[in-house]
Design goal:
6 strands; two-stranded parallel ribbon; two-stranded antiparallel sheet; mainly alpha; single chain; 48% helix
Length: 242
């Protein structure tokens, strides 16, 4: 039925590597003969369809295992377009993330307009074992949790937020071309804040004591780095940022 609807146009077959053996036979016939019969019907229907197929599986390996037909593979593999995993094309991540953000913000009716610099850096550095679907899920979750117009590190899943941290050696080693001292100090501060929150299971009072600063100073620094909301009730500590 899908082929009949696509007559004169294009049909997209996703996850072609998961096609059952019997369906592989039927699909091969349609591709070779450009015709089929409806289920329960006797009339032969001719179709002219461009087929685009996708898979995240190794079809060459499946052919060796005799779970994917070689003849079907060669009928489909006329023009091959390898698509690298998301981690290999990080320049695409900001564009995709912004698109997902606009979509989910509209669906949820939330006034969320973008990402903080730290959050965007974390999104760009994360490895995404689940590829684009995982990025989509991360943004959807972050929009749902966001309580301000910008998604910060605190709105991202822990494993994604942790990707914003550069390796210690990268931060503490002066590159030949020099470095921006303020940016490095901010990065060190942000990493210590995250480490303290992780060690105290998110208890901000305990994290402030661990870092030797006041609770209000901790709130200020977390807000500065986009790690949390700055509208939470303050503690009894009246001191300002240190």
């Amino acid at each position: 039925g899908r082929f009949e609807l696509a007559d004169g146009g294009t049909i997209f077959l996703d996850e072609i590597g998961d096609l059952a053996p019997m369906m592989q036979v039927r699909l091969l016939r349609v591709l070779q003969e450009r015709e089929f019969e409806r289920v329960g019907g006797t009339d032969t229907i001719k179709v002219d369809v461009r087929v685009v197929a996708a898979t995240n599986r190794d079809l060459d390996a499946l052919m060796v295992q005799n779970t994917f037909r070689q003849d079907l593979y060669y009928r489909l593999n006329v023009i091959r377009l390898p698509l690298p995993p998301l981690r290999a094309r990080r320049d695409d991540i900001p564009l995709m993330a912004e698109r997902f953000l606009r979509r989910f913000a509209a669906e949820m009716g939330k006034d969320v307009a973008g990402f903080t610099a730290d959050a965007l850096r974390a999104l760009e550095r994360y490895a995404y074992p689940g590829n684009v679907r995982e990025l989509e899920n991360v943004v959807e979750r972050s929009v749902a949790l966001a309580d301000s117009r910008s998604i910060g590190l605190g709105d991202l899943p822990t494993e994604v937020a942790g990707a914003a941290s550069a390796p210690a050696g990268e931060i503490l080693t002066l590159p030949p071309e020099g470095a921006n001292l303020d940016e490095i100090l901010n990065e060190v501060e942000r990493r210590l804040l995250l480490s303290a929150l992780e060690r105290t299971d998110g208890n901000r009072t305990a994290a402030a004591k661990l870092l030797g600063i006041s609770f209000r100073s901790l709130r200020y620094r977390l807000s500065k780095h986009g790690l949390g909301s700055d509208d939470e009730p303050t503690s009894e500590d009246p001191a300002g940022p240190q």
